[in-house]
Every structure is written in structure tokens, then in C-alpha cells.
Amino acid sequence: xxxxxxxxxxxxxxxxxxxxxxxxxxxxxxxxxxxxxxxxxxxxxxxxxxxxxxxxxxxxxxxxxxxxxxxxxxxxxxxxxxxxxxxxxxxxxxxxxxxxxxxxxxxxxxxxxxxxxxxxxxxxxxxxxxxxxxxxxxxxxxxxxxxxxxxxxxxxxxxxxxxxxxxxxxxxxxxxxxxxxxxxxxxxxxxxxxxxxxxxxxxxxxxxxxxxxxxxxxxxxxxxxxxxxxxxxxxxxxxxxxxxxxxxxxxxxxxxxxxxxxxxxxxxxxxxxxxxxxxxxxxxxxxxxxxxxxxxxxxxxxxxxxxxxxxxxxxxxxxxxxxxxxxxxxxxxxxxxxxxxxxxxxxxxxxxxxxxxxxxxxxxxxxxxxxxxxxxxxxxxxxxxxxxxxxxxxxxxxxxxxxxxxxxxxxxxxxxxxxx
Length: 420
Prior knowledge:
- It contains ten helices and twelve strands.
- α6 packs parallel to α8 and α7 crosses α8.
- The longest helix has 26 residues.
- The N and C termini lie far apart (69 Å).
- 47% of the residues are buried.
């Protein structure tokens, strides 16, 4: 016998083997998920605090306050993007993910399993339960008077990223989906459902929808545009009335003309004009682009749909993946514009999604358990990439857990601001 008849020796040797196995496993885990917590966002040594980064920047690198652009997809699954072996053709996100100046966050988590809670955490840095945004933002009860509100708009008392950056001298804007409150008082003046629009939360310029819309011809279902032709995709019927609203006039008004074509490109047209204006005025900016893609109703224009129909995808799949490809093209146009205007190096561009894919859609989690509405990995683990040439010197794929709540503390750190 190897240990003779001494049971004590057997126990000692077994314990030594067990201890050795545990140490090897811990060592492997440490190498895969290094726990360096010096930075609020990236904790594996690539994107550190602004103060520590400046010592590593070359003398030719700009040290002007960085611009920040946050691009947020809607219901985009972790396995929907091409770099995660998804079916959607996303060459621009691929380039961003593998850029020498980017970090690919492979364990990035949304702050909630549905739209509104995540948006709240992203803007406030606080858990959404603290301000009663428990689920998708919509006044529950009878549609006529909304007597009962089971989840609240974002309270005006909350401090947001936009407010912090505006106080720091930044221009702030939001174009796309708000979904943290309504823009006009409800019929009957329901006190349980107060008005809460982007202008109340630090955004100087905004053109937004109150909640989800079709991803193509978004206001085609409104009565004033009933004579226009709608692209209906695999749905086959006219969409409900949805529209963009803005605070540029004395009253909050809906967009007055039909919005024809892909919604992501409409958002892009607004963003491009805004960025050019800020560069002309030589002012740093915070731009939030919450896309509607790829939330229901997901509808692709003929150009993007045909790419997938030619490859034998169903109409439903072609609409889904086509809408994603259209949004991906906008990401490419955005990166090209930053390069053209000479502000790419000094701009932090962050792409992510608000939650995982909806169950009944072609959306993919790449084997992660669960979908939207669940707290399993597939419901809250989403694609995310950060690109910032002034601070990130080599491409990194990070598997350290990051959550949407991390944005605001990172902004505090970047701008050397003490939280209130």
C-alpha cells in the first residue's frame, strides 16, 4: 500500500493534494479575471483613472477634457453581434471591438433585465429600485386615465451623468429613446405619473421618443400621416402611432413630417449635426444615443433586409438582422466623423445594450441561459465596447464584470469631480 496502514498519513496526503488543487484553480481564475479595482470602469489595468493615465500619455496627446458618446442598443443580445459569432453582419462593431484603442467588455451587465431600469442605472449610477423604476416605464391601469402607476418615471431629484457634465462645462444632448417618463401631462393630471423628460435631467438638446417605436418609418401610424406608405416588414399591418418630441419650441411638439426610412439613420442625422456644431464652438460634449434597434417592432428597410433574404433567412430574421446592420453602419459613420473632425483621439465612445434579446425574436445569447425579463446571464449580459485612443494604447478583451451603474462614477473620476 502507498501509505501503509497509517490513516493519519492518508489524511495528510489527501489534504495536501486538495490544497494544491485549490491553489492551482485560484491561480487560473486570477489570471483570467484579474482583480485590480483601481478604476471605476475597467479593473484590469487598461483604462485607469484620468489622473493616472496622463502620466502615460505621449507629449503629443491632447489632454483637453474628453468628449463622451454613449451609444445604447435596445434588446441586443450578447450573441447577436458578429464578433460573438452572431448572425447579424456587424463589420463596424467588429472593427471597434478589435481596434488598437479599445476594450471589449465580455462580461458587461445591464443594470436591469428590461429597458427603463437599465437606463436609470446608466444615468444615475444607482440601483433602479432606489427610485422606483422597477420595470419598463409605462403607467399601468386603464389606458384612458392611467389611474395606477406601478413603476415611476425617473424622479427629478436624481443626479444624472448629463447634469454632472453640464455643470462641468459640457454641452449635453440626447437623440433617441428616453423611456424614463412621459413628456406631457396625462389626462386628469395624474400626480402618480409626473412629467419627466430629458430636459429635466440635464440634457440641453434632445429629440426623443417616450418609449419603443418601429425601427423604420416610425411615425407612419399617426393619423396626420395616414396617407403615407409604411414599410411593415414581417408584421404586415400599419404600426401604432409613435413620434419624436423636442423641447426646441415653447411647447413640446411631435416631429411634424413623416420620418421615412431607418430610425438609426434618422438618429444619426441629428447626432452628426450636433457633433459638428460642438466642434465649431470648441466645446466638449456628452452625447447619448439610445437607439430603438432592435426592440419590437424591428423592421429593416429593403436595402438591409435584402442582404439576409438573399442568404435564405426568413422575412422575420431578415428584418431583425437587417435592423442591426443598419445600426452598425451608423456606428461606422460615427467613428468616421470623429476621425474627419479630428476629435477621435479625445473622444470616449462607448457602445452597449440595455438588456438581452426578447424571447420570441431571432435574438441570440450564444448559449447563455435566459433572455430579456430574466436575471439569468442571457437577460443581463450584453455586448459592450469602449474606444478611447487618448487613454487606451492596446486592444484588450476584458472578462472582468462591469455594470451599467459604473458610468457615472467613471465620469466623476475622469473629470476629477467629487460626488455630491
